[in-house]
Amino acid sequence: MKKLVAPIILVVTLFMNLNTAFSQCKEWKFPADAEMKAKTEEKISLYDDYRKNKDFVKAKPHLDWLLKNTPDLNTSIYINGAEIYQNLARAEKDNAKQNALVDSLLLIHDLRIKYCGEEDNVINRKALAAVAFWANEAGKEKLVLDLMDQAFKLNGNNILDGTIIPYMQVVRINKLKLKNLTDDEVLERYDVIQSVLDSKIKLALSQGKNDQVTRYRTWKEEVDKILIGLITVDCNFVRTKLGPKFTQNPSDLGLAKKIFVFMLQDKCTDDPLWIEAAERILQEEKDYGIAKNLGIRYLSIENFTKANQMFQIALEVAPGNSEKADILIYQGAIEGRKGSKVAARDLYRQALAADGSKKEAYEKIGDLYYSSFSDCAKQSNMAEDRLVYLAAYDMYQRAGDAKGMARAKEQFPSKEEIFLINWSVGDTQRVACWINESVTIRTRD
Fold first, then answer.
1. From the CB of residue 269, how many other CB atoms can be counted at a distance below 10 Å?
2. For an engineered disulfide with 47, which of 63, 137, 184, 253 has Cβ 3.0 to 4.6 Å away?
3. pLDDT by residue (tens digit) across 51-84?
4. CB under 8 Å to 418, separation ≥6 — which residues?
């Protein structure tokens, strides 16, 4: 098998063997003639016994007889027939003979549609069979792409999961090898895939299937990576190609998502187009990642009101405690910049309560303490005023911030300063002002 095809086969194999739920051939339709009926029963028994024993070569002629003489017998001859031909094709080393077997495999799907219906379901399986063997076969690449296009058109969001990534891989083969797709045609198919994944994510979320959500989101990232390898998707591309479309149709959620992802990847989140697209998405979907990134952007330009709005949305839909802690730290940063140190510390403490591994929160509290010298200094004695640095040091130590600890220690009181007010190293003293914590006396010398 060709190298470009191998990864696709791994994805689709499981999905080619699934049984169907409904068919026009659900009931058995034996011939009325007694002799013919007996012959049919014999062929069923023979082909199925050989199939179950994985002797697909011996199963084939008996299956072929049934397909020719009793094509509307039952859906099972097509399901099992696809299995037989699929395994025969896999085992065949001669390329010409293998292609002939694959031709027959695809014909079995066509016959199933003709006699049993279920076009959407069967075309999906036919496309998967074609991908498994012919995705990169010379002269077959466009046929496979057409089948994939048809499968997605017929099935929409109900497309089998195993078809999704292979579709984008087939697009890549056609674009790079045959050069038969324009950038716009690639983008059209990319849009279809991402729309399907968005729908599957939404359904999985509603059903509480977090493993599926994670898998689909990983697939979205993989599809993005393939696209970036096919066309130059940078901020200039987004502005010139997608920006005008979004201006004409700002309600296009799918387009907004593309703009958001591509501009985020190219690090141009300062562009108003990116912000507009992100906010459009949030109007429809409370997405943690989008809300978080928007909040960071507004925080960077000190639009604290908007930043807090975005972070609040992110906090509401955060998937876990780790993510909640991250948002609480950002909210603490907002309060810190506004000068509300008590509120900032409270948010950092909430972050630590949500996820104790977020040591950054201790560092942030240390920064608050370190910067409070002028706020808290009574200017009656230097030793007491310098207690804020001891409190800062303790926070940096919890954070594992060696540089912060060294910086704070340089500002500790001296031995002379604590001697003047009858303090000793090891004593416990209360830091006044808003900090209101006890520290152990230490000196810088």
1. 17
2. 63
3. 999 999 999 999 999 999 999 999 999 999 999 9
4. 383, 424, 425, 441, 443
- In 3D space, the residue among 130, 126, 111 whose CA is nearest the CA of residue 159 turns out to be 126
Nearest-angstrom CA–CA distance, 263 and 359: 31
- Which token pair is 67? 């397909």
Q: How many CB atoms lie within 10 A of CB 250?
A: 13
What SS3 state is found at 91? helix
The CA distances from residue 65 to 60, 109, 133, 372, 410, in Å, are: 9, 16, 25, 90, 92
Reading the block at residue 131, the tokens are 């991908």
> Cα–chain-centroid distance for residue 294?
19
pTM over 0.85: no
Give the separation between CA 225 and CA 228, rounded to whole angstroms: 5
Reported as a single tens digit per residue, the pLDDT across 144-180 is: 999 999 999 999 999 999 999 999 999 999 999 999 9
Q: Estimate to the nearest angstrom the gap between the alpha carbon of 66 and the chain centroid.
A: 45
Selection from 143, 108, 141, 103 nearest residue 125 by Cα: 108
19: left (phi over 0), alpha (psi -120 to 50) or beta: beta
- Whether the Cβ atoms of residue 382 and residue 350 lie closer than 8 Å to each other: no
Long-range contact list for 198-207, CB < 8 A, 24+ apart?
A: 198/254, 198/257, 199/157, 200/157, 200/161
